[in-house]
Amino acid sequence: MSHLASRRGLLFGTAAVSAGALLTGCTSNESTDDKTAGGAEPVAEKSGKHVTIGFAGPQADHGWLNAINDNAKKRAGTYSDVSLEITEGSNDIAQQIGQIETLINKKVDVLVVLPADGKALTQAGLKAMRAGIPVVNLDRIFNSAQAYRCWIGGDNYGMGLSAGRYIGEKLKDKPDARVIELAGLDNLELTKQRTQGFDDALKNYPNIRKVARQAAEFTVESGQAKMAQLLQAQPTFDALWNHDDDQGVGALRAVEQAGRDGFLMVGGAGALSAFQAIKQDDGVLKATVLYPPTMAASAIDLARALGQGKGVGGLAEYEIPASVTLYSAVVDKDNVDQYMPTGFR
């Protein structure tokens, strides 16, 4: 795998996950209503037992990863009963293991980890759990359920489903509709999951046919180059699903350079640039499906709940769930203002 492929593999994780519910405002005694903390605001209630949360996150070498770290910091800052011990983000496995061991030695109450590599960091998660420190495993999943108390992350298959359903509903009355797909790196499991979800959704619309698929590399440059190829090969089509908003910047450049329109485009992930284009509504990009970095804010909520021995507000159980899979919501011009604060640069 190339350096780029490796980096993007680490970026998105490789866990196969199923559709689930978006977690917002976890514990039953939230302390503030600050909307800047990523996602929905916590429910304003009294503070509880003080909790020290250790956070070992990624190196912020990409907009989505930077948003993960920002969401965690901001969410923790909204709670008067939470202290955050945060490490310097790293994609180096050995370095992150050392950082986690330091947090264990500091005897933090709960640990939140987005591992550089889920499989390689499993032993660090197990060590924390054995030390009596519950672990919230964020997105890139450890390969043992004993290494974490709760997993929370995104839904790659669900991204494809949401994109396919949106496009399907827009084109359901158009005879012989033609759809193309600009995928991500094909050697990543997450890309296969996104394509499978998309294909499965389109099965419900017999009038729609996917006529082309091109794999890019999750970069602006690759998005522009691969989209240019698609445009040259496909003189007419009705919709495009692009797996990633970063490469979508390049795809939109190719569309503009070719002077093409007459189709709708759906993006993926939830970048601020995509939200702004959707709101402006003067181009082909009409929607994007989320892989939300607000999961880091929710991981802080879950960690606080664990530290205070509480469940999730709105659920009957006394304990937090064992796993939470975030829903890949569709953001279009009707709801883009709501999601704008969560857009990552």
Automatic annotation (TrEMBL):
Signal peptide region: none
PANTHER family xrefs: D-ALLOSE-BINDING PERIPLASMIC PROTEIN-RELATED
Similarity section: Belongs to the bacterial solute-binding protein 2 family.
UniProt KW DNA repair keyword: no
SUPFAM superfamilies, alphabetized: Periplasmic binding protein-like I
One Pfam assignment: Peripla_BP_4
Domain Periplasmic binding protein: 53-310
Keywords recorded for this protein, A-Z: Signal
Keyword hit for Cell division: no
Top-level taxon of the source organism: Bacteria
Subcellular location: Cell envelope
PROSITE patterns (UniProt xref): PROKAR_LIPOPROTEIN
Protein name, entry field: Substrate-binding domain-containing protein
